[in-house]
Design brief:
The structure holds 2 protein chains of 2 kinds. Chain A is of the alpha+beta class. Chain A contains 8 helices and 7 strands. A 5-stranded mixed sheet of chain A has the order 2-1-5-3-4. In chain A, strands 6-7 form a two-stranded antiparallel sheet. The longest helix of chain A is centred in the first third of the chain and has 15 residues, at 33-47. The chains are: A alpha+beta, B alpha+beta.
């Protein structure tokens, strides 16, 4: 198939950046979206032009490293990661516009690569259960009701890709944060730190410059793992119970 | 960087030299069940007040690296952690699907530490080190406790207790799992523990950093040279000990189930500085992966081998039927070859056999699916019988997520058309040689997880990779590295030490060389060419002739690479071509060593099948009298033959037997 591309090129964080047009005359519809970009890069190298920088690693939809905005949609037209999107989702002759995640807390490093370390700092603020190695009781000491365990698992499926932020008109990371608060908050092991966790993570979220949730639900629609919007309800509930940040 | 083979009287087979054997692995004496307790007691302690004066560098943040970083940070050491990804949470442990073994015996079905130990040694085809494997089984139960305490959401039963399943053909249910995302959940647990230590200030994180050289001072590992992949800056990081938890080298085949960035550079740079590389030819090739569709393919995707429980594998009897619609090929024209050749085990034969027979069918010209390089590399995995027997809904509830994944990648509905599968490289049992303490042949350099060689012998059992990574990181390394660190305080070294300056200069020169060759071929084109050689000649079946050809072809390709590769851009800032060039340059050296190792081991064992060593029925034939040893290779120098050090495998507690599937 023949594909026309418009790709965001930006030499570095200080560069203004611009859209650049490329043509790919012969793309296999069986290739993945990122393999289509690999093909473009091989052709650019052949011509002596610098290849397009983009992030990817596992290419099987689980590591969360890849992610670009495709024709205005985070991860493109299917509900999956960019690496699992295939060219058969497009038609011969299509024009595809590719941009990096757009959000202040995700500054562009180069071309389509952005810096998502703000997510790591939100986890550092409290997205864990404090259990030093060797201090754990037997795994069967505390049974967990299956439905709680299943809901914790559902929330824990978040891959930290950042599509929720990219899709949100307010660049909120509350789906990301809500999934962690829900994952740990559903489990008995997560209770002792539950209040401190939500307060500290939320404070870090705001400090990083992510916006507040405006209940549009774009995040959940863009989420390749289908994390539901109600993890944000759980986040808000925990936050309210924790006393708006007023309590130790 | 061209190679000339040194021809001396002591060259064996014209390809390697033999050095002194390794006689001491540092395992304590006594009963196997007491060794680990003995070692932990004998390992010196470090006073908590002194720990903050001792520093450790850890390269890699997968299960083995993140767990070690968190644990050493909690203990109070100063840790620097490095990963090439943008976050430690991305490491490729995350992609493991099936589960993690542990000898908990929660099912009361007769499991025990000794049985897990036995199964692992046997599964490794009696090519692993008994003492290390026993310890792995021994600490396995602690891993589950630790992970549950961290909030890892393992599958549970309605009573609230943990569920287990049987995996990989063993007779007990000892595998803990979190749907098909066990690796993800375990890694996120370790990642969160690591992030907690980063917040506490005990661990300093260097993401988007790649280790490009090991610093060895006075014979001890004292640091690394790393490149900041965002700024391009070459940085020196010094410490009292270095841990490599940098994963396996399956990407030497270009196409594998590994992540795009997985590489051997950290291990290989250490090898060139004196760390022995053990059993590099032991690679595992998984039978149920989605086949390659064309030259555009960048990686292969594995599907759980549980599919073989209900799917039937076949190819057309006649090559001329291979491009027909499979539903129009009548029953009598299909060859259910595994059921035909192995009537006892049928489609459930072990991974290595299922893989090799699929290759044989395709080599005979009876493969299906699109031809790549003129050969159709795929066989059918057909669920039509299962759907008729169980109903489509039952098949969907059991395998729905795998069928969805298949449809997304292959673009075909496996409820209507048989799946096409083909084997792919997905794990490497070989790795840097380590002793019982996980210390390499360079003092102060420790190696954990897939990067070391120690626990899986010639073949790894399902659900054992996650177990080993976490065993090493949470429980083994923290106890053994303290014995080394207790020798401190270590001599203070500075950035202007001659060994440091030399390492930095070496890294700069290499980068400068890549950027100045200005040739005509892309890095990827070399990587693909290397992968083809390795896959054809050092893949599922190896022959002396093929391996000798491969060695010559790799040498020629490497020489061409160093004169004709094209790396654009500059050393400053993000340059993904430059990153790949360094990795491929190291793969081009590793590939040759793998072929030499495969050539010298004239027996078949586990994932290493030498065509010259098979039974009359075409099964793998081991030669315990000649090859029951670990092959630990010492770097011989550029253009020089490597030096083989043999570590005899002593089995005091398990009797060696030939595997049989009849």
């Amino acid at each position: 198939m023949r594909i026309a591309l418009k790709i965001w090129r930006q030499d570095g964080p200080a560069d203004d950046g611009r859209m650049v047009d490329y043509q790919l005359p012969d793309v296999s519809e069986d290739s993945s979206f990122l393999e289509m970009l690999d093909l473009l890069n091989e052709q650019l190298i052949e011509k002596g032009e610098e290849p397009v920088a983009f992030d990817s690693d596992c290419r099987e939809g689980i590591c969360g490293m890849c992610g670009v905005v495709i024709n205005g949609e985070a991860h493109g037209p299917e509900r999956t990661t960019t690496c699992q999107l295939h060219m058969r989702s497009f038609a011969d002759g299509d024009e595809i516009v590719i941009e990096p995640w757009r959000a202040d807390p995700f500054p562009v490093i180069k071309d389509l690569c952005v810096d998502r370390t703000s997510f790591d700092r939100i986890i550092q603020a409290g997205g864990f259960i404090s259990a030093n190695t060797g201090s754990a009781p037997d795994a069967h000491a505390t049974p967990v009701p299956k439905e709680d365990a299943d809901r914790a698992f559902m929330a824990a499926e978040c891959i930290g890709c950042g599509a929720c932020v990219a899709a949100c008109p307010n660049a909120s990371a509350m789906l990301f944060m809500g999934s962690k608060v829900t994952h740990l908050g559903e489990l008995p092991q997560g209770q002792p730190e539950r209040e401190a966790r939500v307060l500290q993570m939320t404070a870090q979220h705001d400090l990083e410059g992510f916006g507040g949730c405006t209940n549009l639900g774009e995040c959940s629609r863009a989420c390749p793992k289908g994390i539901p919007l109600n993890v944000i309800s759980q986040l808000n509930g925990d936050y309210r119970r924790a006393g708006y940040g007023g309590r130790d | 960087m061209t190679d000339t083979v040194t021809r001396g009287n002591d060259l064996v087979d014209g390809i390697y030299r033999e050095g002194a054997p390794i006689t001491d692995t540092k395992a304590p004496t006594g009963d196997i069940a007491d060794k680990w307790t003995t070692r932990k007691f004998e390992a010196a302690l470090v006073n908590p007040a002194n720990r903050r004066k001792l520093s450790v560098i850890i390269v890699g943040t997968g299960l083995a690296g993140a767990s070690a970083g968190a644990t050493l940070g909690e203990a109070g050491y100063r840790v620097k952690s490095f990963c090439y990804q943008d976050s430690p949470r991305r490491a490729h442990s995350i992609a493991a699907q099936g589960g993690i073994n542990a000898a908990k015996n929660y099912k009361g079905d007769g499991d025990s530490v000794h049985r897990l130990f036995y199964d692992t040694v046997k599964g490794g085809d009696y090519r692993s080190r008994e003492t290390n494997v026993y310890r792995l089984a021994e600490v396995s139960a602690d891993i589950i406790d630790q992970c549950v305490a961290q909030g890892v959401p393992f599958a549970r039963e309605y009573g609230g207790l943990l569920d287990n399943r049987s995996f990989g053909g063993v007779q007990v249910s000892r595998t803990f799992y979190a749907r098909g995302q066990t690796g993800q959940q375990l890694l996120i647990g370790a990642y969160q523990a690591l992030e907690r230590q980063i917040a506490a200030g005990t661990v300093e994180m260097f993401a988007r950093h790649e280790m490009l050289e090991l610093v060895v001072v006075d014979g001890k590992a004292r640091g690394i040279i790393a490149r900041d992949m965002v700024t391009g800056e070459i940085e020196t990081h010094l410490a009292d000990a270095v841990v490599l938890a940098s994963g396996g080298y399956g990407n030497v085949f270009f196409l594998s189930t590994n992540a795009m960035g997985c590489n051997v550079t950290a291990s290989w740079r250490a090898h060139r500085k004196g760390a022995h590389f053990a059993n590099p030819c032991y690679t595992q090739i998984h039978p149920t992966c989605i086949p390659q569709t064309g030259e555009h393919q960048s990686k292969l995707t594995l599907m759980s081998e549980s599919l073989r429980n209900d799917g039937r594998i076949w190819v057309p009897k006649n090559a001329e039927d291979c491009d027909k619609n499979p539903r129009e090929i009548p029953e009598e024209d299909r060859d259910y070859y595994l059921e035909r050749i192995y009537p006892g085990f049928g489609n459930l034969v072990p991974r290595d056999i299922a893989s090799r027979q699929a290759k044989n069918m395709c080599d005979e010209g009876r493969g299906v699916g699109p031809a790549v390089d003129g050969v159709r590399r795929g066989v059918y995995l057909d669920f039509a019988d299962a759907i008729e027997r169980m109903g489509e809904d039952a098949v969907r509830s059991k395998y729905g997520n795998l069928f969805d994944m298949y449809e997304r990648i292959a673009g075909e509905n496996p409820y209507e058309v048989p799946m096409r599968i083909y084997p792919a490289v997905h794990y490497t049992m070989g790795g840097l040689w380590v002793d019982y303490d996980l210390q390499s042949s360079i003092p102060g350099l420790f190696v954990t997880g897939e990067a070391n060689f120690s626990d899986h012998g010639a073949n790894r059992l399902g659900a054992s990779a996650l177990m080993q990574g976490l065993a090493d990181g949470y429980f083994v390394l923290p106890n053994t590295i303290r014995d080394y660190l207790a020798q401190g305080p270590f001599t203070k070294i500075t950035d202007d030490d001659p060994a440091v300056a030399e390492a930095v200069q070496g890294v700069r020169d290499r980068i400068e060389t890549f950027l100045s060759i200005d040739g005509t071929r892309s890095v990827d084109s070399y990587h693909k060419a290397l992968g083809k050689i390795m896959w054809e000649k050092c893949g599922m079946e190896r022959t002396e002739e093929g391996l000798r050809e491969a060695i010559e072809e790799i040498r020629a390709l490497r020489a061409d690479f160093w004169t004709n590769v094209r790396v654009l851009g500059s050393a400053e800032g993000l340059n993904q071509s430059l990153e790949k060039a360094g990795r491929v340059a190291d793969f081009l050296e590793l590939g040759e060593l793998m072929c030499i190792d495969a050539l010298h081991r004239n027996e078949s064992c586990g994932g290493h099948f030498r065509a010259e060593s098979q039974t009359e029925d075409g099964e793998a034939l081991r030669h315990d009298d000649e090859y029951a040893y670990v092959a630990a290779w010492e770097w011989g120098g550029d253009g020089e033959a490597p030096v083989l050090h043999k570590e005899d495998l002593v089995y005091d507690f398990i009797e060696l037997k030939q595997r049989s599937y009849k």
